[in-house]
Amino acid sequence: MATFMDVHTGMKGITADQLMEAHRADLAIEAEEGVHFKQAWADPDSGTVYCLSEGPSAEAVRRIHERTGHPAAEIHPVPVSVS
Fold it and tell me: Where do the domains of the chain lie, and which CATH numbers do they carry?
């Protein structure tokens, strides 16, 4: 399973509750594409939202976000990470 970081723009003023609602919408249908959304972060001032996921492809991640009404502006593979 590959890891992806996607970026959403235009979500200025997003609240923690709205971020959770969007994340839950993704979680509700993620299995249909074999994707798992692990975490989401938001900057309400800039309107930028970031999501970390695992899945078979960037296109699978893109399809889930499009179906839940918040398409990603960018999706980046993350082939190397440390914790």
Answer: 2-77 (3.30.70.3090)
